[in-house]
Structures are given as C-alpha cells and as structure tokens.
Specification:
355 residues, D-amino Acid Aminotransferase, Chain A, domain 2, 2 domains, D-amino Acid Aminotransferase, Chain A, domain 1, 8 helices, alpha+beta, six-stranded mixed beta barrel, nine-stranded mixed β-sheet, binds pyridoxal-5'-phosphate
Length: 355
Amino acid sequence: MNITYEIKDEKRKVELPENLVFGRIFTPHIFEMDYDEALGGWHSPRIKEFENLSLSPAAMVLHYGQAIFEGLKAYKQEDGKVVIFRPRKNLERMNNSATRLCMPNIDEDFVLNAMKELVKLDKDWIPTKQGHALYIRPLMIATDPVLGVRPADNYKFLIMLSPVGPYYPEGFKPVPIMATDKYVRSVRKGVGDCKVAGNYAGSLAAQKEAIAEGYTQVLWLDAIEQKYIEEVGTMNIFVRFKDEVATPPLQGSILPGITRLSVIQILKDWGYNIKERLIPIQEVIDRYNDGSLLEVFGAGTAAVISSVSKLKYHDTVLKLTEEEPGELGAKLFKEITDIQYGRISDRYNWLETVD
Ligand SMILES: *Cc1c(COP(=O)(O)O)cnc(C)c1O
C-alpha cells in the first residue's frame, strides 16, 4: 500500500497558544485508512487535511462502542531532531485491544511509517518548551451503518496530532487523588487492560465526584474485593515504601502502561527493590501511619510522572507532599524526559527517529 497525499500545498502559519492546554488543538493534517472485509482488508491510506468525518448515524461505533485508541508522544530535541517514544509498544498494544474487541489488526510497520510521515509533515507544530510535546492519537472505529450487535465489517483508522503542554491543570505540581469503592473501573477478563473508549465513559461519574471534592483523579480499587489499589484514571500507580517500590501486577484489569514498563526498567537498573504485587489500600494507610510510606506517583504518557500530593479514602486523608514532587518521582521524571528530549543518551533504544 502506498500513502497518498490529499493536502493543500500552502504553508500554514504555526500558531501555538502561550498556555497549551492538553488536547484542544490539532495540527492541519491527519492520517486515515479504511477497512472493508469485502475488499480484503485495509485500503486507501492517505494523509489529508484535518476535517470532520462523515459517518452514518447508524455507524456501529456510535451504538455499540467498537472504538480503541492509543496515546504517545513525539519530541523535538534541542538539535531539531524529532523522535517518538516507544511507538512500537503502542501499536502492539493497539493490536491487542483490536483483537479483544473483534476489530482488525493493523500492520505495525506500515502504521509506524505512516505515523512518522505525518509527524514529519507537521513537525513545525511540535512545541519545544519543557514538558511540551506533540501528542499522537491513533484511533480505530467501526463504521458499518447497521443496528445489529456483531463485529463490524468496516472500520476507519486515524492518526491525529495535538501539540500539548502539561496534562494536569496543576502543571508539574503534585496532584491530589481519591480512592473510591463506590464504582469500579474494570474487572479481570473484561476490557480494563485494553485502551477501549468505553472504559473512560464508565469512569466519568467517579472522576466528577472526585473533582467536586477537590481531587484531580480517581484511584481505582480492584472490582472484586475493593481492597487492592489498581491504577489512576490515565496513569499506573507506584507506591514507594522505605524498603521497596511497589506497583500493582498486570492481571488483566489494569492498563499495561508503557511509562510503567519504562519506570520498572529504570528502577531495576538503579538498584531499587521494585515489586509488582498486590497492594492493599489498608497497607498504604497503615504504612503512612507508621512512617514507612515515602511517596506515591503515577506514570503515564500524558503527564510522564505525576507526584501525588494527597490521597483520600473514605475519611482518611494521607498528606504526602505539597508543592514539591516526591524525590523518586522527580528523579524519574527527569531521567525519562532527559531521554525523550535527548539530553542524555537513549541507552535503552526507546526513541524512534522521525527524520
Ligand atoms: C493510557 C493509560 C495508562 C498509561 O499508559 P502509557 O502507555 O504509559 O501512556 C494507564 N492507565 C490507563 C487507564 C490508561 O488509559
């Protein structure tokens, strides 16, 4: 398959607002291709102007939610080199999500190349300030105009690009999170380990209630016993005790984050005692009370590392830090962003060069 270009050749002026809020503006171009079971699969890959989609109101995605996505970032380094952080991992994960929702797989090499072409075309839109990047959002949706519940035969795959600043309104300041046992996000053998759109729709009520209480995100507990911590809205969670750094294991209900994977690798190399294990919320509270809980941080593409300032559960509020991020979280944030911005060597080969 060859990518066709359906773009205006005028040079668009790049206008990035001073205060770049997450995910509000998009670059002028988008990658798109279609899948038709009858035509033998994916066809018509093209890079075109960013514009509205035309879909039947009966399009299956709108009714039954066959929608999966990914999130990754491109960075412009000081010498102008453009890199994408671990994109193969995202495409692999997207195919896992696709298989789980009976959607077609994509050719990872082909899509990676398309992604690079698109990023190259719109590279002037990559903001360079610390903490800023070009967020890449691949998306796949079912388009059959049929009101019957079955896997669709037609799909659309898109890649859009959004210049972004820090994910949380707090910027790099620590964020307050609230654990809840009023709702659950996902259960093992469900779709919690896939980036499927429905997971987020189901999480909004809890997030809204957390925000009403002054907390930025929800810390989910396991769906069966409501006993173990699982993850935050869009981040995996790490808890640093005096003798150990712990993160919940991947047992099918939490998203296998690529930032999580990177953090585990770095901590191992730094000689930390890093454990993937069940972490009861009660243990977190007890060890806060006995002084052996040092810090809590989240890890995800959007914020990279986000230190937790306060953790609320029922009537208990653990005050972890105020203005300053936790020590290890800050060190990891620096290490990972130093790799991304090319300030230190890419010793794990995590960066894919665009041009
Ligand atoms: C995307 C996401 C993460 C983080 O994954 P990364 O690959 O590190 O960006 C964690 N949890 C949920 C629910 C997510 O959607």
